Amino acid sequence: MTTAPLAEVTASNSTLRGFLHGLPGVDRVGADARAAMLGTRSIKTTSKRQAIDLALRMVDLTTLEGADTPGKVKAMCAKAVHPDPTDPSVPSVAAVCVYPDLVATAVQALGGSGVKVASVATAFPSGRSSLEVKVADTAFAVADGASEIDMVIDRGAFLAGDYLKVFEQIAAVKAACGSAHLKVILETGELSTYDNVRRASWLAMIAGADFIKTSTGKVSPAATLPVTLVMLEAVRDFLRTAGRKVGVKPAGGIRTTKDAIKYLVLVNETAGPDWLDPDWFRLGASSLVNDLLMQRQKMATGRYAGPDYFTLD
Amino acid sequence: MFEYAPAPESRDIVDLKPSYGLFINGEWVEPLGEGREKTVNPASEEVLAEVAVASEADVDRAVQAARKAFTVWSAMPGSERAKYLFRIARIIQERSRELAVLESLDNGKPIRESRDVDLPLVAAHFFYYAGWADKLGYAGYGADPRPLGVAGQVIPWNFPLLMLAWKIAPALACGNTVVLKPAETTPLTALAFAEICRQVDLPPGVVNIVTGAGETGAALVNHPDVNKVAFTGSTEVGRQIARSVAGSGKKVTLELGGKAANIVFEDAALDQAVEGIVNGIFFNQGHVCCAGSRLLVQESIATELLEALKRRLGTLRLGDPLDKNTDIGAINSAAQLARIRELSDAGEPEGAERWSPACLLPDKGFWFPPTIFTGVAQSHRIAREEVFGPVLSVLTFRTPAEAVEKANNTPFGLSAGVWTEKGSRILWVASKLRAGVVWANTFNKFDPTSPFGGYKESGYGREGGRHGLEAYLDV
Amino acid sequence: MSERVVVRKTYKLFIGGAFPRSESGRSYVVSSSKGKFLANASKASRKDAREAVAAARKAFPGWSSATAYNRGQILYRVAEMLEGRRSQFVTELVDADGVGVRRAGELVDAAVDRLVWYAGWSDKIGAIRGSANPVAGPYFNLSSTEPTGVVAVVAPEAGPLLGLVSVIAPVIVTGNTCVVVASERAPLPSITLAEVLATSDLPGGVVNILTGSAAEIAPWLAGHMDVNAIDLTGAEPELAVSCEQDAAENLKRVLRPASGKADWITDPGTGRMTAFLETKTVWHPIGI
Question: Is the ipTM of this complex over 0.85?
Fold first, then answer.
């Protein structure tokens, strides 16, 4: 599970701690400034058109409400496959993301569309339960057909310095995933510092994460550009160190095309163009899709679009 | 691949006249001599406009106008002078897009920098010193500090409008009048500023702008009725000025060259250090007196850091300065390009290894790729002389003491950088560096409240902050 | 019975805490204001000036990084030692300056008081000349004062003690080291002052005193590339101009001679300290 060059790192909590605390620090002001500068890139005309479609293809269309119902999920799945029913050139999104008990509904609704089903698991969003429950939660979602699992880490254990516990939980959930891809949610809004974001990213990757994800969407702040920058640096450096490529998923608070394009620029200039693919970068979002569609239509027609012309599902 | 389509800022916003006179006593006047010079866009070599070359007689006219205006301006209550400066600040904000485009056209710097760095700082500088004009008695220079008189100010081409602001704002706030000479390759924003002086109804003669080259500057500096000389530029010219004003009693401030060390320790926040190194030397094509042109990296992380740095340089976008996505613009002039080439060409024969990212240079205009020299020794010319271009010399060190020793081993002393996550080490290094500005875990940051200026051959006097007032007061 | 023959002092230079003769072997006659032979003073050469600069440079790292409190204590100690030699200085001033005993006493008292005054500045000048600058961004930004380095001082011709103390104290209290060219006409108090300095815990090399001809030595100091600043207070107008020109070569900070007659009695203000202070501004991000 752990990649060979880093195997010795997880021998004990103290070796793991030594490794994570030996990573270079992150200067918050510098990281913020870098992300802000990249946010000023001006993406126009053909690049913008290309970026909008790429962003659409990267969306994990998400509903994670207590009030979610099969009806709501089915409607969202329809939207995921054909975000704009009036325009067949609009690509499908990457995946839908739902709670475990609605995985089966989503799998059925999506059929052979190619849109994947992702499920949150492991006592989402707080992660406050036993490892047995977390593993069972995961196994349940996988059994129902989820091909991607979005787990949350135990932030309490992380902040208490019990890195080995966090590592072991991720590894156990990874084992429970089988062939399903594992996205590990760091909940960066609770980790507070960028140093912690970097450490948690490496911890998750060492434990076998296929993706590292910023947030549950239930904690503010959710995804931010600088946090995503730090995570992109981590996957870039992890590939170099461990020889394995890991994806990144910012989630929560990404609502506009402008936001989405800033993330794409960030990917392009940090991890590099190799990550500009739904296999390696996702945007966890819901309302973003309609803004992307409105901008797409504006570029096609030259007129500003109105929200009434796009479905709300 | 994610290619960024061209995103050029429109230049239509700039209304250029074919030819400019001198701005003396609030009026545009023709020069007395025949001298005219063309100013070109360094990115295309297109002629932008023709400007006057002020002769000694023209300079004399300007100084006389400033002398006459001094009576009015110095007697005006500070609170009233302040209002003119506030007006200037506001108009600069209102016209900032136009001025940013004009600056990029004439200078070659990326619009991203002129828009996001130069212009905001220009406006901020006038706002800052406007506020001092009626508070001089609280500045620590006595209850009623007096202005000096007429200030002769000569500024460089790297930050044309920002250097103008650094010179004119404190001078006017303190009650002096000025004759300012912009650099011969970048006169246009200073001439636009003259127009702003008219828009704010600044009393005639308080600001006079004379264009021209070295001879015009010398005439201004040496004019017997100038009380204060302020110069930003090369150490060589600074030396000449210091020599020529000897015995005249003129107050002088000089902001000259540098060869800043940017010291990166093994425990630095590496990604931010890489950004700081890039910003330190490639900001404004390295046309920065405080540029971090000597990277001193701890040997234990040199390989890793250089790899990251090279990777980062691969993402720099060189090209059209008016494109909003351009990171590296044009070299300001053919002469400067020749100077950069000459010094860079000395690098390899002296034993350094040269590296540049793959990068296409436009056919027309003056361009130089971002360049790194590794394996540089203190004795190499590229480690000692100011290149004033996008050229970084990389040296290594083993201990903090060695880093400081190498950093200080230069006749310059303008700025320095230090990168480490250890607080006590930052303060130790900062206290040992013989430099006027030390950026710790950051680089090339400027602010009107923050004094700027050098030790040793980087000049004397400070610009910015309360300290910056001293240069324009009779204290 | 014959009267006892007084043992006279040999006046030498003061370099690096030691009292060497001029390497040139030269001396010159110093007479009282009434023309009476007082002593032979060493006539420093350009090589002595070079040695003095080297000594000052060597002393700079230690002295400039001593705590301000420590420098203040040492200056105060100098004042104490000067007070203890009051009568000796009164005699020397009467001889050198032609002033009366009472006036000489006032001048020595003023010199002691001046040292005490400057001693107190050591840990205060930074507070009034430095600043925390409220920059528009998440940065801690602090400007603090630092000594310029090695300062050459042409001491005033008039005021062989008070004038001398008044130009040395402000230079060294902030952490500079200096090479002083003493009053040519009345150099003897400067060497006696050197004896005071040498016994006051002041590290060797912080103050170096050369006697001789300012016109001969000052240009070498003004042109010396390892001197950071020059105080031309005692230079005649023509010498001051040529020294200022020479000082341009390495952009020395120059304190020009004041116009009019020097007055060493009134409050000197902070100008003599600030002329030889640099402002260093340090930026650091503020973040978690």
Answer: yes
